[in-house]
Amino acid sequence: xxxxxxxxENTVVFKGIVDYDLAQTFNCGQCFRWDENxxxxxxxAGKYPCKVWIKETELYVESLTDVENSAEFKEYxxxxxxxxxxYARLKQQFAADATMAQAIEYAPGIxxxxxxxxxxxxxxxxxxxxxxxxxxxxxxxMAQTYGTKTGDxxxxxxxxxxxxxxxxxxxxxxxxxxxxxxxxxxxxxLSGEIDEATVKSLPYAEAQKYLMKIKxxxxxxxxxxxxxxxxKYESFPKDVWINRALAQMFPQxxxxxxxxxxxxxxxxxxxxxxxxxxx
DNA sequence: TCCCAGGCTCTCT
DNA sequence: AGAGAGCATGGG
Length: 279
Description:
CATH class of the domain at 117-229: Mainly Alpha
Number of strands: 8
Strand order of the largest sheet: 1-2-6-5-4-3
Oligomer: single chain
CATH superfamily of the domain at 117-229: Hypothetical protein, domain 2
Shape: globular
């Protein structure tokens, strides 16, 4: 996609933005570390601590540290925010199915972010049998205990920063039975047994199997990592809400019009289900 | 007090 | 291979 943007003073402005809602995007359960203040969202997009806001059809991203390479910054943010995928066309395609059209209409401003691999892997290990508010708290404690602070924002820790953290220390972050799984994931990333470039290069099914070498990572967590950080848009994570949606909204199965991009459709379905379906 | 959460592992059949 | 209990923790 051709993305129109201008850059000045650590800020990139993306123009011609239509149907993009930051609240819907950051609150739809795909990420856990963005906070809003007076319409301005703050958080980390990869290595960039940022403020993000939308004014009419312009999307502003201000880096809170000095940008060394503005071209790289622009490209990274466009991809992170999902601006390089034609959502207008995709949503029109999905809306061929009436139930999909209903889910999209409920929150048309959702975009699937392209997040960093390591952070996504760990946060979705924490997500297992957990609820979103508590996931956020645990992830914040991880950042504040082991990450690096920029201004008043704590970066999610790198694998290197977690190198010497023990299971007992993870327990102190109140992550319960997930501590040993976080520990295993960190070790496997550090040893190279789990390699980001390898995951991304594998076809979906093999990539899922590869990630499941990590203890505590099953099909659902692997699918989330593949969808939210590896551009495997055919990945369709199934949690309790999606299972409810499948039973109540798609008793005949998923429609043909989302094929190949099931993961993007999934995010609209998930968000709709969470706020509209009975338990 | 019990139920549940962006599930998975282990055990029993 | 399929079903079911158990799991840490905290909010409702």
